[in-house]
Protein backbone atom coordinates (compact mmCIF):
# COMPACT_ATOMS: atom_id res chain seq x y z
CA UNK A 1 0.00 0.00 0.00
CA UNK A 2 1.25 3.48 -0.84
CA UNK A 3 1.09 5.55 2.32
CA UNK A 4 3.83 8.13 2.03
CA UNK A 5 3.25 11.13 4.33
CA UNK A 6 4.16 14.30 2.45
CA UNK A 7 4.40 17.42 4.58
CA UNK A 8 3.52 20.79 3.02
CA UNK A 9 4.01 23.35 5.76
CA UNK A 10 1.88 21.96 8.56
CA UNK A 11 -0.39 19.82 6.36
CA UNK A 12 0.26 16.09 6.15
CA UNK A 13 -0.94 14.23 3.05
CA UNK A 14 -1.45 10.47 2.88
CA UNK A 15 -2.03 8.77 -0.44
CA UNK A 16 -3.74 5.39 -1.00
CA UNK A 17 -4.26 3.26 -4.13
CA UNK A 18 -8.05 3.53 -4.13
CA UNK A 19 -11.07 5.07 -2.38
CA UNK A 20 -11.81 2.03 -0.23
CA UNK A 21 -8.33 1.91 1.29
CA UNK A 22 -8.33 5.68 1.70
CA UNK A 23 -11.68 5.63 3.49
CA UNK A 24 -10.66 2.82 5.81
CA UNK A 25 -7.36 4.51 6.66
CA UNK A 26 -9.11 7.78 7.42
CA UNK A 27 -11.66 5.99 9.59
CA UNK A 28 -8.92 4.11 11.47
CA UNK A 29 -7.15 7.39 12.17
CA UNK A 30 -10.32 9.13 13.35
CA UNK A 31 -11.32 6.16 15.51
CA UNK A 32 -7.90 6.23 17.13
CA UNK A 33 -8.21 9.94 17.89
CA UNK A 34 -11.77 9.57 19.25
CA UNK A 35 -10.75 6.79 21.61
CA UNK A 36 -7.64 8.70 22.66
CA UNK A 37 -9.70 11.78 23.50
CA UNK A 38 -12.36 9.77 25.34
CA UNK A 39 -9.65 8.67 27.76
CA UNK A 40 -9.08 12.33 28.58
CA UNK A 41 -12.60 13.79 28.61
CA UNK A 42 -16.23 12.75 28.98
CA UNK A 43 -17.40 13.71 25.49
CA UNK A 44 -15.94 14.33 22.04
CA UNK A 45 -17.43 17.03 19.79
CA UNK A 46 -17.28 16.32 16.05
CA UNK A 47 -18.24 18.02 12.79
CA UNK A 48 -19.11 15.88 9.76
CA UNK A 49 -19.22 16.74 6.06
CA UNK A 50 -22.02 15.65 3.73
CA UNK A 51 -20.91 14.59 0.25
CA UNK A 52 -20.41 11.43 -1.82
CA UNK A 53 -16.66 11.91 -1.30
CA UNK A 54 -17.23 10.93 2.33
CA UNK A 55 -19.02 7.63 1.60
CA UNK A 56 -16.15 5.20 2.08
CA UNK A 57 -14.92 7.01 5.17
CA UNK A 58 -18.34 7.23 6.82
CA UNK A 59 -19.13 3.58 6.06
CA UNK A 60 -15.88 2.44 7.65
CA UNK A 61 -16.29 4.77 10.61
CA UNK A 62 -19.86 3.67 11.23
CA UNK A 63 -18.83 0.00 11.12
CA UNK A 64 -16.31 0.47 13.92
CA UNK A 65 -17.14 -1.51 17.06
CA UNK A 66 -14.91 0.29 19.53
CA UNK A 67 -16.40 3.79 19.64
CA UNK A 68 -18.71 4.72 22.51
CA UNK A 69 -21.10 6.75 20.36
CA UNK A 70 -23.10 7.84 23.40
CA UNK A 71 -20.17 10.07 24.26
CA UNK A 72 -20.12 11.88 20.90
CA UNK A 73 -21.77 15.25 20.22
CA UNK A 74 -22.28 15.51 16.46
CA UNK A 75 -22.61 18.56 14.22
CA UNK A 76 -22.73 19.05 10.48
CA UNK A 77 -21.04 21.87 8.66
CA UNK A 78 -23.55 23.17 6.13
CA UNK A 79 -27.11 22.90 4.88
CA UNK A 80 -29.20 24.11 1.95
CA UNK A 81 -31.79 26.76 2.68
CA UNK A 82 -34.33 26.03 -0.04
CA UNK A 83 -35.03 22.29 0.32
CA UNK A 84 -37.95 20.76 2.25
CA UNK A 85 -36.98 19.31 5.62
CA UNK A 86 -37.46 15.67 4.58
CA UNK A 87 -35.91 16.02 1.14
CA UNK A 88 -33.34 13.21 0.75
CA UNK A 89 -30.94 15.71 -0.83
CA UNK A 90 -30.51 17.71 2.37
CA UNK A 91 -27.22 17.24 4.15
CA UNK A 92 -29.05 16.26 7.31
CA UNK A 93 -30.71 13.41 5.41
CA UNK A 94 -27.34 12.31 4.01
CA UNK A 95 -25.75 12.11 7.45
CA UNK A 96 -28.78 10.42 8.98
CA UNK A 97 -28.50 7.65 6.42
CA UNK A 98 -24.72 7.30 6.54
CA UNK A 99 -24.08 7.48 10.27
CA UNK A 100 -26.45 9.42 12.55
CA UNK A 101 -29.32 6.92 12.41
CA UNK A 102 -26.97 3.97 12.77
CA UNK A 103 -25.83 4.83 16.31
CA UNK A 104 -27.04 6.45 19.49
CA UNK A 105 -25.11 9.70 19.88
CA UNK A 106 -25.07 11.84 23.01
CA UNK A 107 -26.45 14.61 20.80
CA UNK A 108 -26.94 15.29 17.10
CA UNK A 109 -27.21 18.97 16.28
CA UNK A 110 -28.74 19.84 12.93
CA UNK A 111 -28.68 23.11 11.02
CA UNK A 112 -32.26 24.09 10.18
CA UNK A 113 -32.24 25.27 6.58
CA UNK A 114 -35.96 26.01 6.81
CA UNK A 115 -35.78 28.32 9.79
CA UNK A 116 -38.07 31.34 9.53
CA UNK A 117 -35.24 33.62 10.61
CA UNK A 118 -31.98 32.50 9.02
CA UNK A 119 -29.93 35.02 10.97
CA UNK A 120 -31.31 33.72 14.24
CA UNK A 121 -30.60 30.13 13.15
CA UNK A 122 -27.00 31.03 12.37
CA UNK A 123 -26.63 32.56 15.84
CA UNK A 124 -28.27 29.55 17.48
CA UNK A 125 -25.87 27.13 15.84
CA UNK A 126 -22.90 29.35 16.61
CA UNK A 127 -23.90 29.32 20.28
CA UNK A 128 -24.01 25.52 20.23
CA UNK A 129 -20.50 25.37 18.78
CA UNK A 130 -19.31 27.77 21.48
CA UNK A 131 -20.91 25.54 24.10
CA UNK A 132 -19.29 22.41 22.65
CA UNK A 133 -15.81 23.36 21.40
CA UNK A 134 -14.96 21.16 18.45
CA UNK A 135 -12.41 18.39 18.86
CA UNK A 136 -12.53 16.73 15.43
CA UNK A 137 -13.54 18.06 12.01
CA UNK A 138 -14.06 15.56 9.18
CA UNK A 139 -14.30 17.47 5.92
CA UNK A 140 -13.92 17.35 2.17
CA UNK A 141 -12.60 19.87 -0.33
CA UNK A 142 -14.78 21.12 -3.15
CA UNK A 143 -13.80 21.15 -6.80
CA UNK A 144 -13.44 24.93 -6.45
CA UNK A 145 -11.45 24.54 -3.23
CA UNK A 146 -14.32 25.28 -0.90
CA UNK A 147 -14.43 24.12 2.71
CA UNK A 148 -18.02 23.52 3.77
CA UNK A 149 -19.87 26.11 1.63
CA UNK A 150 -17.12 28.71 1.85
CA UNK A 151 -16.72 29.17 -1.91
CA UNK A 152 -13.99 31.53 -3.15
CA UNK A 153 -16.34 34.55 -3.49
CA UNK A 154 -17.48 34.32 0.16
CA UNK A 155 -14.55 32.64 1.92
CA UNK A 156 -12.97 34.74 4.66
CA UNK A 157 -9.98 33.47 6.60
CA UNK A 158 -10.77 36.06 9.29
CA UNK A 159 -14.54 35.78 9.22
CA UNK A 160 -15.99 37.54 12.28
CA UNK A 161 -18.87 35.08 12.57
CA UNK A 162 -19.02 31.32 13.17
CA UNK A 163 -22.05 30.50 11.01
CA UNK A 164 -23.48 32.48 8.10
CA UNK A 165 -25.78 32.40 5.09
CA UNK A 166 -24.01 32.29 1.72
CA UNK A 167 -24.86 32.39 -1.95
CA UNK A 168 -23.36 29.36 -3.70
CA UNK A 169 -21.21 30.06 -6.71
CA UNK A 170 -21.76 28.39 -10.08
CA UNK A 171 -18.85 25.95 -9.72
CA UNK A 172 -20.10 24.76 -6.35
CA UNK A 173 -23.63 24.26 -7.64
CA UNK A 174 -22.34 22.43 -10.71
CA UNK A 175 -20.38 20.07 -8.45
CA UNK A 176 -23.65 18.98 -6.85
CA UNK A 177 -24.80 17.91 -10.33
CA UNK A 178 -21.44 16.28 -11.07
CA UNK A 179 -21.81 14.28 -7.84
CA UNK A 180 -25.30 13.12 -8.97
CA UNK A 181 -26.90 14.81 -5.99
CA UNK A 182 -29.16 16.79 -8.35
CA UNK A 183 -30.32 16.06 -11.89
CA UNK A 184 -29.87 19.53 -13.27
CA UNK A 185 -28.23 22.80 -12.23
CA UNK A 186 -31.59 24.54 -12.00
CA UNK A 187 -32.55 22.13 -9.21
CA UNK A 188 -29.57 23.01 -7.00
CA UNK A 189 -30.40 25.54 -4.26
CA UNK A 190 -28.76 28.93 -4.55
CA UNK A 191 -28.36 29.68 -0.83
CA UNK A 192 -27.10 27.74 2.16
CA UNK A 193 -26.03 28.04 5.77
CA UNK A 194 -22.40 27.21 6.44
CA UNK A 195 -19.88 27.11 9.21
CA UNK A 196 -17.23 29.67 8.40
CA UNK A 197 -13.56 28.93 7.87
CA UNK A 198 -12.52 30.09 11.37
CA UNK A 199 -15.20 27.79 12.82
CA UNK A 200 -13.74 24.81 10.97
CA UNK A 201 -10.17 25.77 11.78
CA UNK A 202 -11.08 25.97 15.47
CA UNK A 203 -11.30 22.16 15.54
CA UNK A 204 -8.37 20.64 17.41
CA UNK A 205 -7.90 17.96 14.73
CA UNK A 206 -8.90 18.17 11.07
CA UNK A 207 -9.16 15.17 8.76
CA UNK A 208 -9.80 15.83 5.09
CA UNK A 209 -11.13 12.99 2.93
CA UNK A 210 -10.67 13.96 -0.71
CA UNK A 211 -10.93 11.19 -3.35
CA UNK A 212 -11.59 11.11 -7.08
CA UNK A 213 -10.22 12.57 -10.32
CA UNK A 214 -12.40 15.69 -10.15
CA UNK A 215 -10.58 16.75 -6.98
CA UNK A 216 -7.05 16.50 -8.39
CA UNK A 217 -6.79 20.19 -9.27
CA UNK A 218 -8.25 21.24 -5.91
CA UNK A 219 -5.72 19.05 -4.11
CA UNK A 220 -2.87 20.53 -6.14
CA UNK A 221 -4.10 24.04 -5.36
CA UNK A 222 -4.48 23.23 -1.67
CA UNK A 223 -0.86 22.21 -1.43
CA UNK A 224 0.72 24.58 -3.92
CA UNK A 225 -1.16 27.85 -4.34
CA UNK A 226 -0.78 31.11 -2.48
CA UNK A 227 -2.53 31.23 0.88
CA UNK A 228 -5.52 33.34 -0.20
CA UNK A 229 -9.31 33.11 -0.13
CA UNK A 230 -9.37 32.47 -3.89
CA UNK A 231 -8.17 29.00 -2.84
CA UNK A 232 -10.05 28.48 0.44
CA UNK A 233 -8.57 25.06 1.24
CA UNK A 234 -5.04 26.48 1.36
CA UNK A 235 -5.86 27.61 4.91
CA UNK A 236 -5.47 23.98 6.00
CA UNK A 237 -1.71 24.42 5.67
CA UNK A 238 -1.76 26.71 8.71
CA UNK A 239 -3.53 24.38 11.13
CA UNK A 240 -0.85 22.10 12.57
CA UNK A 241 -3.07 19.08 13.23
CA UNK A 242 -4.58 18.57 9.78
CA UNK A 243 -4.25 15.47 7.59
CA UNK A 244 -5.45 14.96 4.02
CA UNK A 245 -6.40 11.45 2.90
CA UNK A 246 -6.20 11.06 -0.88
CA UNK A 247 -6.57 8.28 -3.39
CA UNK A 248 -4.53 7.68 -6.55
CA UNK A 249 -6.83 9.83 -8.66
CA UNK A 250 -7.12 12.88 -6.42
CA UNK A 251 -3.35 12.88 -5.85
CA UNK A 252 -2.49 12.54 -9.53
CA UNK A 253 -1.03 16.06 -9.74
CA UNK A 254 0.92 15.80 -6.49
CA UNK A 255 4.13 14.89 -8.31
CA UNK A 256 4.07 18.41 -9.74
CA UNK A 257 4.37 19.99 -6.27
Fold and architecture overview:
The structure is a single chain. By secondary structure, the chain is of the alpha/beta class. The protein has a single domain, classed as Rossmann fold. Helices cover 29% and strands 20% of the residues. It has helices at residues 19-38, 55-63, 91-98, 118-131, 170-178, 197-201, 216-224; strands at residues 6-8, 11-16, 44-48, 72-76, 78-80, 107-109, 136-139, 163-167, 191-195, 205-210, 242-247. It has an 8-stranded mixed beta sheet with strand order 1-2-11-10-7-3-4-6, with helices on both faces. A 3-stranded antiparallel beta sheet has the order 5-9-8. A hairpin with a 2-residue loop joins strand 1 (6-8) and strand 2. Helix 1 (19-38) packs across helix 2.
* Gross CATH architecture: 3-Layer(aba) Sandwich
How would you state the average pLDDT, rounded? 93
| Count of DSSP-assigned helices | 7
CATH level 3 topology: Rossmann fold
Using the alpha-carbon principal axes, give the shape.
globular
What is the first-to-last residue Cα distance? 21 Å
Specify the CATH class: Alpha Beta
Number of domains: 1
Oligomer: single chain
Which stretches are poorly predicted, pLDDT < 50 over at least 5 residues?
none
Strand line-up of the largest beta sheet: 1-2-11-10-7-3-4-6
What is the N-to-C order of secondary-structure elements (H for helix, E for strand)? EEHEHEEHEHEEHEHEHE
Largest sheet: 8 strands, mixed
Q: What structural class do you assign from the helix and strand content?
A: alpha/beta
Radius of gyration: 17 Å
Strand content: 15-25%
Number of strands: 11
Amino acid sequence: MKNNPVSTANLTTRIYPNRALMGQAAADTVVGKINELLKQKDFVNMIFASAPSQNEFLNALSDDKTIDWKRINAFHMDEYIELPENDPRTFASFLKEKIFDRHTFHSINYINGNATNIGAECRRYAELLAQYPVDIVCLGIGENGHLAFNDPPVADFNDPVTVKMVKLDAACRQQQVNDNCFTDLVDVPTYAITLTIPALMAGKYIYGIVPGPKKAEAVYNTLNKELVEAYPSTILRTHGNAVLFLDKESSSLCDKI
